[in-house]
Write a structure and sequence with these properties.
Blueprint: E1 4-8, H1 13-18, E2 21-27, H2 40-50, E3 62-65, E4 71-77, H3 83-98, E5 104-109, H4 113-130, E6 148-152, H5 161-178, H6 186-200, E7 203-208, H7 209-215, H8 218-224, E8 233-239, E9 247-258, H9 267-270, H10 278-293, E10 298-308, E11 320-322, E12 328-330, H11 337-351, E13 356-361, H12 365-371, E14 376-380, H13 383-396, E15 400-402, H14 407-410, E16 420-421, H15 430-438, E17 447-451, H16 473-482
Helix pairs in contact: 3-4, 4-5, 5-10, 8-11, 10-16, 11-15, 13-16
């Protein structure tokens, strides 16, 4: 449950001085005098003590305590800066305040009306995202959730619905992604999704392991058959709006644990593989945010939920598998399971003929090699989708970079025994080859593939302090608005 919001258009100095934790957001303008900033005298003394000039504000987090014990932080927003840079400016200061687990946070926004509007949206988004600690299994929790935010300096009749909805979706994504693999098995995940669907009135249908086998979804079944529980499934969720013009399909990779199968990962490579279901969690986060915002769009969501286990029944190198669309696939590496489960999920999505298909997956290590963990990579069979996706990344602070989907890359996947190879053993340009493979299953509908290299970033990313970033939820909401 995110913190409740109380708004007040005026800046009440007495209220500020009586608060325990205060975040003051100031525009970076030399014509904005320190004496007009609440507790400006304290800020002036702090600058003098640190021998900092006014224009250096914002380079590092600036906090101080009043004589009454109030912890105050000043975040300085530079208007030409990107949304990502502004999110980081506020987050770095908010981290210090929220580290003490306050029950209430007072946010003060200053400047002209446009500056206060933008600052309040950013500050509330940061506070809501980071004010709810991720669950742990420790007997004594190290932090408590933020219960209330008081916003001074700006009032919005819309109650900042979009910022709150995106924060709630991001938190759901991170919560699911960080659950340990013994707690989030495919069966347990499906039960959680069923509860969410009932709470939010989403239509739900499960294509379980046996049904998928009967349907001929051989690519998905090949991966899932290594698990003795047979609890894998492709879960379909639908959100509708009476004013919707289009249906957008969202497809998510939901591998709850990835051992690598017969091509077993090393211990170092297997650590953290409970987060390989992050793509499906991103889809759920976007779906929740869209529902909270009442977005006028229809959403078809397809979650490919399974595990990639090593067992006598697991699929093997050189197996030839027939996918749901009839295409035969030569298996080259069993650790390339994500593209296998996505292949049949994309086929199901394409059968409904949506206006656009967007898939999300922590798919390839080569994307991390290419970009690191601060951007995610995107591919598309339509140039206009790449342009919209890049713009959505700038607007949301969740940055993406486009990669080529040239036909000559795909020639490397030619097989002598099947319609296509799954991948190459060498692994060169695997992020491009994986996208080339997935493109075979979308029936040439407008399609965008997001390889989530920024799903996990040490030290946090943008507005998010935790290493698990929830990247893709904020971007997805912006992208839905663009579409």
């Amino acid at each position: 449950m995110l913190a409740k919001l109380k708004q007040q258009a005026d800046v009440d100095l007495k209220y500020i001085e009586s608060s325990s934790h205060v975040l003051i957001v100031v525009p970076k303008r030399n014509d904005f005098p320190l004496e007009e900033i609440p507790l400006g005298a304290l800020l002036a003394k702090l600058l003098a003590r640190k021998k900092l000039k006014r224009e250096q504000l914002g380079e590092d987090p600036v906090t101080a305590s009043t004589s009454e014990g109030t912890l105050v932080g000043w975040a300085v927003l530079d208007s030409p800066a990107t949304v990502f840079e502004q999110q980081v400016q506020i987050r770095k200061v908010a981290e210090i305040l929220l580290a003490e687990s306050p029950a209430k946070l007072t946010i003060v926004v200053l400047g002209n009306e446009d500056e206060r509007r933008k600052a309040s949206q950013l500050a509330l988004y940061v506070a809501w995202i980071n004010g709810m600690p991720l669950p742990t299994m420790k007997r004594k929790p190290e932090s408590r959730p933020l219960e209330q935010i008081v916003l001074l300096g700006y009032r919005d009749a819309g109650n900042f619905l979009a910022a709150r909805a995106k924060a709630e979706g991001n938190f759901l994504c991170r919560l699911l992604t960080t659950l340990p693999p013994n707690e989030l098995t495919p069966g347990a995940y499906r039960r959680r999704i069923a509860v969410l669907a009932k709470q939010h009135a989403w239509k739900r249908r499960e294509f379980d392991f046996r049904e998928l086998r009967k349907l001929g979804a051989g690519a998905f079944v090949a991966v899932a058959q290594g698990s003795t529980e047979e609890d894998a499934a492709i879960v379909y969720l639908r959100y509708t709006h009476k004013r919707a013009r289009n249906t957008i399909a969202l497809v998510g990779k939901g591998i709850c644990f990835d051992t690598g199968g017969h091509n077993l990962k090393t211990a170092r490579g297997m650590l953290g593989m409970h987060e390989d279901m992050n793509g499906s969690a991103v889809v759920l986060g976007i779906l929740l945010a869209a529902t909270r915002m009442n977005l006028p769009v229809n959403l078809d969501c397809w979650l490919a939920i399974a595990q990639n286990h090593l067992s006598p029944t697991a699929y093997k190198q050189n197996d030839v598998i027939k996918a749901l669309n009839g295409m035969t696939i030569e298996i080259v590496h069993t650790d390339a399971e994500g593209r296998m489960v996505l292949a049949d999920a994309l086929t199901l999505a394409a059968k409904e003929e949506p206006a656009v298909i967007v898939d999300f997956a922590t798919l390839t290590g080569t994307m991390i090699y290419a970009l690191g963990t601060r951007y995610s990579g995107i591919f598309s069979n339509r140039d206009e989708l790449l342009s919209k996706a890049t713009t959505a990344g700038q607007a949301s602070g969740e940055r993406v970079n486009a990669f080529p989907l040239a036909a000559d890359y795909g020639t490397a996947l030619k097989s002598s025994v099947a319609d296509t190879k799954q991948c190459l053993i060498a692994g060169e340009a695997d992020h491009i080859l994986a996208a080339s493979f997935l493109a075979k299953f979308v029936n040439d509908l407008p399609w965008l593939h997001v390889d989530l290299s920024a799903a996990n970033c040490e030290g946090g990313l943008g507005a998010v302090s935790s290493q698990t970033t929830g990247f893709g939820v904020g971007w997805g909401v912006e992208m839905l608005s663009a579409l």
